[in-house]
What does this fold into?
Amino acid sequence: MSTLADRLGGAPLRHQAPPHRVLAAPERAQGLLGACRVMLAAWSRRRRDRETLARMSQRELQDIGLSRTDAAIECGKPFWRS
It folds into this structure.
């Protein structure tokens, strides 16, 4: 039984990793700014979600399966902690 390399008449094929690319300063800055935007958006969403959670009634908390204690613990976290 022949292998693909035998049929092609050469050495076994190898996967070659793409060469490492050094990012230019603008690309690095864009990547850093993009990461900061994502982080700030997550912080904002957490803060907003925790404010909403704090305003929920007992009935609404029961609907989502949380107790008042669970909600208080979550609302007590700083915005940067998940």
User: Anything to note?
Assistant: The mean pLDDT is 82. Residues 36-82 form one domain. Residues 25-55 form the longest helix (31 residues). The two ends are 56 Å apart (CA to CA).
